[in-house]
Amino acid sequence: MQLSTRNQWQGIVKAINHGSIVSEVTLEISPEVTVISIVSKAAVEALGLKVGSKAYALMKSTEVTLAVD
After folding, report:
1. What are phi and psi of 14, to 5 degrees?
2. CB-hemisphere CA count at 13 Å for 22?
3. Region for 48 from its dihedrals, namely left if φ exceeds 0, alpha if ψ lies in -120 to 50, beta otherwise
4. Helix ranges (DSSP H) in the chain
């Protein structure tokens, strides 16, 4: 996976809390660092995110994007 986003952190999905339209995904980068991202439920399904899945947090100054490979 090649992206222009420079701040890319690999982590493990620790929790997914679904709302009616969006989901809150908790990604553990290290034992001391967790990132929480709000994404659409459709994105969670399209990425196949599950607790225990490997994913990446992509950080920009205005947003956090999740990715899988």
Report:
1. -100, -25
2. 6
3. left
4. 41-47
Which CATH number is 48's domain given? 2.40.50.100
Q: What is the pTM of this model?
A: 0.80
Angle subtended at Cα 10 by Cα 66 and Cα 63, rounded to the nearest 5 degrees: 35
Per the structure, how many domains does the chain have? 1
Cα–Cα nearest to 56, from 19, 39, 17: 39
Q: Give backbone dihedrals phi and psi of 53, rounded to 5 degrees, phi first.
A: -70, 150
Q: What residue type is 21 in one-letter code?
A: I
Angle at 48 between CA 42 and CA 58, to 5 degrees: 80
Question: Which structural domain, as residue segments, surrounds residue 13?
Answer: 7-67
Condensed to tens digits (0 to 9), the pLDDT of residues 3-39 reads 666 677 899 999 999 999 999 999 999 999 999 999 9
